[in-house]
Amino acid sequence: MIKVDVTQLSIDVVDLWMNRWLLLTAGTFDDCNMMTVAWGSIGCMWGKPFAQIVVRPQRYTHEYTERYDSFTLCSFSKKYRKDLKTLGTLSGRDSDKLSRTKLTLCESMKVSAPSYNEASLILECRKIYVQDIDPKGFIDNSIQDTYPEKDYHTAYFGEIIAAFIEE
């Protein structure tokens, strides 16, 4: 992996979220949880490069994103798609779901949340803003269909403080 100046990072963010997905990991190397995410954004807010993720409150990862001050977002080549499906459907509350994949943790450079040796892109993020999604803000009523259980996501903004790409 090579470090990239975050202000020079150039990625197709729509493709990244919609087609490639990302693996969100929060916690520490010794105590973390991860989940596959396909909703979020990457851009500039408050003069800082940021990644924004959303996590439903019943997800085990929610406990980690609440408790810890950082998270990582990692992208992988297509050969890890099955692993991302596994990590997106199993709960870390019930088992060591990472052991069911080919992915291995590695220490991150700037944050306590770990990354993955197999990642092709790593974004290390420090939490800077958290807010529960309020359905009163939905202008497009069809968004409400995403929440039949009224389990609205919590949105987390993280300043991207380090970025790495595959050589």
Walk me through what this model shows.
This protein has three helices and ten strands. The strands form two sheets. Strands 1, 2, 3, 4, 5, 6, 9 and 10 form an eight-stranded antiparallel sheet that branches. Strands 7-8 form a two-stranded antiparallel ribbon. Strand 4 (40-45) and strand 5 form a beta hairpin. Helix content is 15%, strand content 38%. The termini are close together. It is mostly beta strands and 167 residues long. The chain has one domain: Roll (Pnp Oxidase, Chain A), CATH 2.30.110. The chain is globular and about 45 Å long. The chain has helices at residues 13-20, 60-67, 81-89; strands at residues 2-4, 22-27, 32-37, 40-45, 48-55, 70-75, 105-106, 115-116, 121-132, 154-165.
**Average pLDDT number:** 94
Q: Tally the helices: what do you get? A: 3
Q: What is the H level of CATH, i.e. the homologous superfamily?
A: Electron Transport, Fmn-binding Protein, Chain A
Number of domains: 1
- Number of E-type strands: 10
Major β-sheet profile: 8 strands, antiparallel
Structural class of the secondary structure composition? mainly beta
- Under the CATH scheme, which class? Mainly Beta
